[in-house]
Amino acid sequence: MSDEIAENGTANGDVPEIELIIKASTIDGRRKGACLFCQEYFMDLYLLAELKTISLKVTTVDMQKPPPDFRTNFEATHPPILIDNGLAILENEKIERHIMKSVPGGHNLFVQDKEVASLIENLYSKLKLVLVRKDEQKSASLRAHLARIDALLERRGTRFLTGDTMCCFDCELMPRLQHIRVAGKYFVDFEIPTSLVSLWRYMYHMYQLDAFTQSCPADQDIINHYKLQQALKMKKHEELETPTFTTSIPVDVNSAHHEQ
User: Fold this and answer.
1) Is residue 57 within 8 Å of residue 83, measured between CB atoms?
2) pLDDT tens digits for range 145-164
3) H helix and E strand count, the chain
4) What's the pLDDT tens digit per position in 96-135?
């Protein structure tokens, strides 16, 4: 296990320390891997650590060669794993519930918004269909879905999905948008249309935030995540590449009428 991220928040004993175990890179076995759930909970907890309601420790585990103490404690369980005061929470739904119910400040992240919830829930499955092979119908379906998110952001005129502060839905959506952006371009030349200005403005705001940039895997790790799913071989030079992070914005978000 490698401790990859230093504690964020205070460590003077007056706030609980939460440890999040996440999957390591499938390229170098040390840096952050491209697990969507790991990044989602990392973002949730990072926001709470910024508010100093918790102290956060993030540990990466190479699941291709898990260390003996990990195997002893968790057997074949895959991260994310949340550890709170010695209690290990192993399933995604239980982790989410624990953050919402038991982690100080967590309930503030979990807002009720049925429109947003239904809008983002099938996005990832559409990406996976697109990545299998170049298919214009599937690409069009994903573009239409992104256009609906863009329309919601345009209509609401808020910085994030449900308001001007981040919530659990943002921690869920933005990692998926990054996978769509990086893997879509690499495998099938799919690009998020520049006409979706409100969506790009949203991504611009997210790229400014430590909660996203500190938890975001490298482009190479996102790409390798899907190569492994498709049983594609990694080229040797990829192990030597300097990690890159795509965070540029192809549209001028500052000219938009309700830029904050």
Assistant:
1) no
2) 999 999 999 999 999 999 99
3) 11, 5
4) 999 999 999 999 999 999 999 999 989 999 999 999 888 8
Q: Are 116 and 152 in contact (CB under 8 A)?
A: yes
**Amino acid (one-letter) located at 232:** L
Whether the CA torsion 228, 186, 194, 207 is positive or negative: it is: positive
pLDDT band of residue 229 (cuts 50, 70, 90) is confident
- pTM of the model as a whole: 0.91
How many C-alpha atoms does 248 have within 13 Å on its Cβ side?
2
Structure-block tokens of residue 225: 């995540």
What distance in Å separates the CA atoms of residue 91 and residue 75, rounded to the nearest whole number? Answer: 14
Q: Where are the beta strands (DSSP E) in 42-193?
A: 55-61, 81-84, 87-89
Taking alpha carbons only, the member of 220, 213, 216 closest to residue 186 is 220
The tokens 């990859």 sit on which residue? 4
Locate 100 and state its tokens. 């919402």
CA–CA separation, 223 vs 14, rounded Å? 41
Residue 258 tokens read as 């309700």
Q: What is the mean pLDDT of residues 240-252?
A: 88
Helices 168-188 and 219-229: crossing angle in degrees, nearest 10, is 70
Asked if residue 123 lies in contact with residue 176, where contact means CB atoms within 8 angstroms, the answer is yes
Residue 93 CA to residue 219 CA, distance in Å, equals: 27
